[in-house]
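Most newcomers find our protein records easier to grasp once they have seen one. Nothing more is needed to start thinking about how sequence determines fold. Here is such a record, shown just as it appears in the course material:
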Amino acid sequence: MIEKSELGRFEFEYLILDEAQRIKNKDSVLSKDLRTYNTRSRILLTGTPLQNNLNELWALLNFLMPKLFDTAEDFTNLFTVEESQ
């Protein structure tokens, strides 16, 4: 990420991120830095399964499609099942 200011001047066709589990925290420095790049398409590669919660999945999907997966709260509500009384 040393070159982030220099790379940020360009528009990329693709941003391909290997070890994508490194951005499962939307507030991490790496995640924030990568989100600043101007790209037409993004591809995430990982062999690590999601282990903890829906917020991790949301963070990856939000990176790929921020307009569709806007907030973690809305995403979580899609998968929340209320028990009937």
Remarks:
- The chain has one domain: 4-76.
- The mean pLDDT is 88.
